[in-house]
Amino acid sequence: MSALFNFQSLLLVILLIICTATYAHQVVPAMMNRNRHGFLGVFWKAARIGERLSPYVSICCVIMAFSLFTQ
Predict the structure, then answer these.
(1) pLDDT 10s digits, 22-53
(2) What is the DSSP string of 4-67?
(3) What is the band of 21 on the pLDDT scale with cuts at 50, 70, 90?
(4) Are 12 and 57 in contact (CB under 8 A)?
(5) Among 1, 21, 57, 59, which is most exposed with the fewest C-beta within 10 angstroms?
(6) d(C-alpha 27, C-alpha 6), whole Å
(7) How far apart, in whole angstroms, are the C-alpha atoms of residue 47 and residue 54?
(8) What does the alpha-carbon distance between residue 45 and residue 31 come to, in Å, rounded to a whole number?
């Protein structure tokens, strides 16, 4: 089943994008800031979400991990 049709998989993909974009922004900030508009702007926005809401994102990652382990 595709990640688009399974809600839990969709949430997992969104969390992974947020965490990866935040890490990439910490490592290479010039690359992320240069691509604010267009398709790559999605990753810049995800990095902003990860930076500003990091406690909530980390709690969601822990909850997602527990839900995957209990399956």
Answers:
(1) 999 999 888 888 888 888 889 999 999 999 99
(2) TT-HHHHHHHHHHHHHHHHHHHHH-HHHHHHT-SSTTHHHHHHHHHHHHTHHHHHHHHHHHHHH
(3) very high
(4) no
(5) 1
(6) 32
(7) 10
(8) 13
Q: How far apart are the two ends of the chain, measured CA to CA in Å? A: 16
**Is the Cα torsion angle 54, 58, 63, 67 positive or negative in sign?**
positive
Tokens matching residue 27: 């490592």
Structure-token match 């930076």, residue found: 51
The length of the chain is 71
Show Cβ contacts of residue 60 under 8 Å, excluding neighbours closer than 6 positions.
11, 15
